Amino acid sequence: MASASTKSAKCLFGESKARLADRVQVNVNNIASIARQIQRGSKSNEILLHCAKNFADQQTALDNSETNVKKLEANVSQLEVQYESMTRNANLMEELNEQVRSMQR
């Protein structure tokens, strides 16, 4: 009789263990499903993709800005040369005017 109740207890224990394993599996699947829904709902992939694209665009904007700054530096140098030339010519004009006045006297 003891062996029949032992078999019965083992059978019950085995069934309980199997049901518990099934419930654990169902819960794990449900948690995975919730995680997927949260990820889809948060749109984190789209946000990360958008951020990466904006970052890459910023690099292009920085490169363009650097190019524009170099062009502006070249323009400043040219303007400085032209300013010096105009100042020198203005001084020469004053000297020339003085010479013309002295010749007229």
Automatic annotation (TrEMBL):
Q: In which compartments does the protein localize? A: Lysosome membrane
Q: Where is the signal peptide?
A: none
Task: Write out the GO cellular component annotations.
Answer: BORC complex; lysosomal membrane
Q: Any idea which UniProt keywords this protein has?
A: Coiled coil, Lysosome, Membrane
A Pfam family it matches: BORCS7
Coiled-coil boundaries? 55-96
* Similarity comment: family membership: Belongs to the BORCS7 family.
* Record protein name field: BLOC-1-related complex subunit 7
Starting at the broadest rank, the lineage of the source organism is: Eukaryota, Metazoa, Ecdysozoa, Arthropoda, Hexapoda
